[in-house]
Amino acid sequence: MVHVHQGERLGLDDLDGLYSRSGVVLTPEGIVLEINEVPPLAEAQLRREEVIGYPLAETWWWSFYPVSQAQLRTAIKRTSRGETVRFETVIHPREGLDRHLDVVVTPRRDADHHVAYLVITGIDITERKRAEAEIHALIDAIPQLVWTTQPDGFHDLFNQRWHDYTGQSTAEAQGEGWMQCLHPEDQPRVCYAWQRAVQTGGVYETEVRLRQGTTGEYRWFLARALPVRDDTGQIFKWFGTSTDIEEQKRTEQQLKESRESLSVLAETVPQLVWTTSPDGCVEYWNQRRYDYSGSSPAQALGHRWSQFLHPDDAQRTLKIWHQALAMGEPYEIEYRLKEGQTGAYRWFLTHGVPVRDEGGQIVKWFGTGTDIEEQKRTEEALRQSQEHANTLMNSNIIGIIITEGEQIVDANDTFLHMTGSTREDLRAGQMNVMPMTAPEYLARTVEAHQKLDTQQSITPYEKEYICQDGSRLPVLVGGVLFQHHPCQVINFVLDNSARKELEQRKDDFISIASHELKTPLTAVKMQTQLVRKRFEKHAQREAATALSRVERSIKQLERLIAELLDVSKIQAGGLEYVRERVDLDELLREVTATIHHLHPSHTTQVRGSVQTSLIGDRDRLGQVFTNLLSNAIKYSPDVRTVEMDLSASDDAVTIRVHDHGLGIPRELRDKIFERFYRVTDSKQKAIPGLGMGLYIVAEIVNHHGGTITVDSAVGKGSTFTVTLPLMRDA
Q1: Which residue has the higher pLDDT, 518 or 117?
Q2: Is 523 a member of any domain?
Q3: Could you give the CA distance from residue 401 to residue 390 in angstroms, rounded to a whole number?
Q4: Residue 170: its H or E element
Q5: Which of 133-137, 167-171, 319-323, 504-508 has the lowest mean pLDDT?
């Protein structure tokens, strides 16, 4: 039984007044005592007597999602101990309907201050969640550095311009990671301003210096953020922009350093500048403001400036201006000013600050007006998010499909045209991702879809669709999970036919050219050897030495042609392997001896041993480690030592080749195993090579059931790690 202190009511009448909220009264153990008639009862199509007296956590709408049920149970436990708990969750009132709720669980105490019962209220924030998804989808269209945060100030999203400028990824910038780009001297001031804005819910604005990721230089930005509120007035998101004001700050610095009069200095800034007397009478406009308004001093000075305001903004602007005059505090306002020549209005952000004497008395007001027309247009673009989304779906450049599981539930005309499908096929439910996928790409497609739960997106990958007429269409596919509809994925599909055809032509050329070059090169090699032997026989050592150098060049050509042939065979699926028992220690000793002979100026330090053997192709495995050691030497032009570490477990051996050379940037590490790819660093361009070696190495290691990875730091060197299974039938 619930004991309630005299004078305290359960407040059940209040619960029925929560039109957009659900209200429930529970025992401290979570048993329902009372519930209002608004959702979730109405949406769940249940009567009150079917719920009252039963655990709330066991009801259909809470138990459908185990995570939501666990959240509720945890909240009930904490509230029964006297805490007030708030959390966001998803409930499932009935089949086909989900609701996002902002839930508050409050304890109510009896006369003895014991928790007598719990009151749960939930605000429906489903539409807010959908709005957030639309904001996320279009935020990259804004030309400034843009970011959003959660209600508590946690930074969670940044647009592409932020990434391009700072070099940070979203993961690196989230939370407080973005502060790594702040100038150290600005950090305390910025933290204080941001925390104050989050606490008060007011406008956030401050000037900061942000580091440019490529050059390391700092530029000044005007950072502004506004809270976005739901229908109840609760903040559910902060939206912020950072506008480059480097030139403005430089101008302001010039103003500070200049000894000229204020009127002369004001002419140098790019904003509209004005000053007033302490009572607000305009005394000065800079020339830029006169040029913009098309007025003269006689028309503008005094109290006549308000005639240039947009009629809809005049009352609000004058009210704020008079309040600032009365309080003596800086102010900020946005309004529209008429352009004299065209009569059009543009948005300006105006700052006004009082200038005080040594006694603290206001002697003048100084203000600037910054043109923010483009920013306001961008904000308007956000409000038109649905129109932008429809434009994307109707694009004739890129195929767009929406999937639920494997089923295609919607598609734009471009995708239907690409695959030869019709709207009737779509409406009839006859379009499924897996049957439309070529058999050899099914495993890759399944793997990509399985990563959705953890990555929330599908990394773009290549595949082929089987079209309605039976033809195959090479495509590049990627996708993103809908945040407001976790069962649906929006996918883009790019026609990859032209690129595939070009790659095939290139592969055909390489195959033909490498075969055609091999025969005459072999003849040249034989003739060179014969001539050198004749010179040696007749003691013509100088000529023999010259021919030896020619032979070394021929060997380099042989190696390049051999690698071209290997690449061609890999692309055709015809690289040949033999099966034999390979003593790895013996093989690696031979490889290091060969490397020392080819590069006598370098030393290879071998640490450890594997003392075992495996089944594989001895020559191909030798090719792997010869290539890795050669690369280590090639990319360490200023270091004379490379290292090889050997170790073994019961089922695998590991060989690590480490150098202290140029290193590889993080974002390029996966690309180095692609054929013909070479790092574009200026230092590495000077090192000869066609970018085939690591591509062949990766193919040989993969064929033997092994793996190859790289760990590297620019300027500190690289470590390539090869792991091979023991006694594997290759």
Answers
A1: 117
A2: yes
A3: 13
A4: helix 170-173
A5: 504-508
When the pLDDT of each residue in the chain is averaged and rounded to a whole number, the result is 81
Token pair, residue 604, equals 């290879």
**Does the predicted TM-score (pTM) go above 0.85?**
no
Last residue of a domain, one of 215, 244, 273: 244
Residue 552 counted as domain residue: yes
Q: Would you say residue 387 lies in a domain?
A: no
The reply to whether 481 and 560 lie within a common domain is no
Boundary residue ending a domain (441, 467, 495): 495
Distance from chain centroid for Cα 636: 33
Domain assignment present for 703: yes
Select from 269, 267, 284, 270 the least CA-distant residue to 355: 284
Question: What are the two backbone dihedrals, phi and then psi, of residue 282, each rounded to the nearest 5 degrees?
Answer: -70, 125
The number of folded domains in the chain is: 6
Q: C-alpha distances in angstroms, 513 versus 282, 517, 571, 574, 575? A: 81, 6, 15, 17, 17
Half-sphere exposure of 637 (CA within 13 A, CB side): 8
CB 92 within 8 A of CB 65: yes
Domain that holds residue 662: 580-725
18 plus 144 within the same structural domain: no
CATH number assigned to the domain comprising residue 287: 3.30.450.20
Quick one: pLDDT at residue 2? 38
Is there a cis peptide before residue 143, judged by omega within 30 degrees of 0?
no
Which residues lie closer than 8 Å to 521 by C-beta, 6 or more apart? 554, 557, 558, 561
Structural contact between residues 270 and 159, judged by C-beta atoms closer than 8 angstroms: no
Could you tell me if 549 and 644 lie in one domain?
no
d(CA 20, CA 41): 13
Count of alpha carbons within 13 Å of 288, Cβ hemisphere only?
16
Same domain membership, residue 721 and residue 585: yes
161-180 confidence digits (pLDDT tens): 999 999 999 889 999 999 99
